[in-house]
Amino acid sequence: MVEQAVRPVAEVIAAKAPDGWTDAVLHCQGGRDGASLSGGYRCGDGSWRSGLPRLWSELRSLTEALSQDHGWEAMSLELRTRPSGEYRLVASDDAVHRVTGTGRGFRAVLDPGHRLTRPGMRQEPGTAGPAGDPELAVARFRAYLERRSAVLGHPEELPPPATEDAIAGTEARLGRRLPADLRALYKIADGDHTDLGPRYLFQGNTWLSLEYLVKASTGYGAAEQPWSGWGLEWDAVILDADPAETVRRCGGHPGWLRFASGEDGNYLAVDTAPARHGRLGQVIRTGRDHNRGPGYVADSVTTLLGHYLELLDQGAYATEDDYIELLEPGRARGRRPDSGSLPDDIPPGLQSIHVIDATGPVDLAPLGAARSLRRVHLNRAATADLTPVRELPVESLRVTLDGGDLTPLAGHPHLASLELATTAPADLTPLRTAPRLHGLDLAEAEVAELAVLSELGGLRYLSLTRRQWDALLNEDRTPPALAAACLTDTDSTLDEALAWAARLGLDTGRAFRLTGTLENGAG
After folding, report:
1. Read out DSSP for 446-504?
2. Phi-psi region of 176 (alpha: psi -120 to 50; beta: other; left: phi over 0)
3. What's the pLDDT tens digit per position in 371-392?
4. Residue 150: which H helix or E strand, with range?
5. Using an 8 Å Cβ cutoff, are 446 and 464 in contact?
6. Secondary structure (3-state) at 56
7. How would DSSP label each residue in 203-246?
8. Nearest Cα residue to 37 out of 20, 24, 47, 19
9. Other CB atoms within 10 A of residue 499 CB
């Protein structure tokens, strides 16, 4: 089947080739959810033309044939075609795959089950009791409905109350008890969705029925942030909420009970597992737009309802099509300014900074004012001194180091990922004592002694050039616990990547190879 399926792909590539082409390369990752492709044509003058013709139906047939013949649910393939009509297909499961987006070589997943621990799972738990008051919450909710009715000119229809048995059954399914104030509201109405649709009572979020609260709180991505692959996860940082240390730094948690939905993948949740400065039953934002940092909303549903009443009293609302939109100014968070230099005033709550295309060496000393700084990325910007990073809780560091001195990172208690470029050979020895370091990208660095990497027992991800990998593998000094690795050379072939991955211990013996020639050549 594969033989019949690959030929139409090669035919389309050849038929749509530009004049003067000498070679065409297609890289594809395919699976049940479809296929992604990249590649292009090399021409006789040495130029490279990115982009290939539309091949979706042909690729679908090819990936389906490979799946049927080899049992692969997901796969990686490379097809090379020449003007002579010759073509060559290399395919394997997707444990080895082309890096998309940046075009930086291949990635090999050595331990597909390994996941990095979210920082929130290590945080000290909160011990403060709930701030919510069920009687006050009920009084405020009824007052809120009355004010809304006055604005709209009519009362809003809500579902019947939930029974005590229904609430208890929900809690049994969740394995957690609802905060008392939210529990009391469900005895007034089981959410805000009727046959006429939702009322969006929680500031643009529809209040979920108990049935959908369970589904939202136990469904995909709720209890644990979905894994996005090593390309995104190895240096990912989950930022803190504001106020700090109130919400666990996770993308998802089984203690976050989603009770209201923005119908866009985002939710309001009550937090039954707060961080050390949080309170049981606090309201947070979680979901699609909060995977890299949950948001703190209020210390309880009771307080949140009081805030809604204040907004109505202030006239901070708008109406449209029988709906009320509560209005309030946006709240700035200590996130991520991007610029060509450090800002003149460093906000104390700054958590992430990205400096791009700096005109000269970047002095990191002013960052000492940002005591919550967790991510420092310098792109096409260099610094000569990492000493200011030593006293900061930086977890992700991307830097070009003028001089190569990593001594300030010795014993750094927070550093988890380092992407390093250097202007002089760097000694990696200080990294041996960084207890949380799990990811390294040294492809742009000159390293004095790569063998030091074998002493990094906690390293799970490593990105190197072909030359660096050869030096490391020839000495048999790879880190002992790698879960994923990257070969960054852009001119690497899938065959070369499979051979490299095999040296790392990955079983690549089931890879499939096929050669053929189009009838009458490619013309």
Report:
1. -BS-GGGGGG-TT--EEEE-HHHHHHHHHTT---TT-SEEEE--TT--HHHHHHHHHHT
2. beta
3. 999 999 999 999 999 999 999 9
4. helix 134-152
5. no
6. helix
7. TTBEEPPHHHHHHHHHSTTTSSPPP--HHHHTT--PPPPSSTTS
8. 24
9. 14
pLDDT tens digits, 440-464 = 999 999 999 999 999 999 999 999 9
Give 448's contacts (C-beta < 8 A, 6+ positions apart). Answer: 404, 425, 426, 427, 428
Burial environment of residue 91 by CB neighbours within 10 A (0 to 12, 13 to 18, 19 or more): buried
What's the CA gap between 73 and 77, in Å, rounded?
Answer: 13
Please report the domains of the chain, with CATH numbers, ordered by start residue: 2-95+512-517 (3.30.500.20), 119-326 (3.40.1580.10), 338-503 (3.80.10.10)
pTM, 2 dp: 0.91
| Location of structure tokens 């990294």 | 431
**Could you tell me how many residues make up the chain?**
523
Query: Are 48 and 40 contacting, i.e. CB atoms less than 8 angstroms apart?
Result: yes
> Residue 146 belongs to what H/E stretch?
helix 134-152
* Tokens at 202, concatenated: 């929680």
Average pLDDT over residues 501-520: 94
Closest CA relative to residue 145, chosen from 341, 309, 340, 380: 309
The structure tokens 């700090």 sit at 244
Which residue has 């065959």 as its token pair?
Answer: 495
Q: What is the DSSP string of 500-522?
A: HHHHTT---TT-EEEEEE-TTTT
